[in-house]
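Q&A log
Question type: sequence-to-structure
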Amino acid sequence: MVGFLKSLFRPKVKKAVSVQPFGSYFEVCGSETLLEAALMNDVPFPHNCTVGTCGACKCRLISGQVKAITDFGYTLSKQEIEAGFILACQAVPLDEETRLEVVSSGIDAPPPEKYTGKVAEARSLTHDIMLVEIALDRPLKYVAGQYANVEYSGLSRARSYSFADAPDINGRSRVSFMIRKVPGGEFTEALHAGALEGKELSIDAPHGDFYLRTSVAPMVCIAGGSGLAPLLSILEDARKKRVERPCTVLFGARTSADLYALDQLDNISKGWRGSFHFIPVLSHEPEDSDWNGARGLVTSFISDALEKEPGEGAEFYMCGPPGMIDSAIEIASREGIALENIHYDKFTDQSTQAPKS
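Response status: OK
Response body:
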């Protein structure tokens, strides 16, 4: 009992943390996360959601051990975890000294700002995906592949959606998103029911480091469901900029009725400088339908995509549900694709949120 009482009043051990390339050095007290302590000490640590879903605070653990508040595997791939990556917002240091490295994304994006907007148009693309266009109070600039946080008064928390349009050099006064209806989802149920018409929305943007890297390497793009949105933004922007790279797009859907934006992809294909292959893959198409295309899981066609884009150094750009992303990273790694050439954006909802430990 005496030992227990002494432990209550024993001074808490402060843990030292250094962060490169910032050259920052600070202390973490108690149960503070690495991100909380970094921000308290004015370290420009990249971050956004702070709850372990966006991956913006991903960094490499050089030395020391940490406790994960939420399993890193819900956001990071197995390969990234094995390479030493962690999420600073979900990591509490265990050792007296911890060394981190923030790997710069290299994205040259404008800083996020607050905008207000209203739904200007909403139309169904499939039975559960809607194209939503929001009119803003002023033009918004972003990099193709980035996303916005959307909320309104009374909503429990902001929702994140990727821009579906190519950016404009002067900014866009109207921005579009492709939003999938989540059963029981507080935001999407209201949206698909038309309850958000005329309601003032708050837009916090731009965010994210999913973007097209400067390269001449072949591109393999993989999308699932509404994950096609940021890839359309990237591909349309690249077409306008006359990017000349071989490209194969794999689009996974359940049935032919779940395919959308086919005209957009056809236009991109016709204007693409270089070879362009589009492979839609259906996982639950009825056997007796007249579909003559690919069937099965979209990740099963990665080897086929690499055969169409021969040569070392292919870059992967992937958006979709966590299961698809994790499987694709594993297969791409087996095919010899370097981890630094695999870029992705996991689309999570309340059904894929990580439980707190």
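Response note: The chain has three domains: 13-101, 113-207, 219-346.
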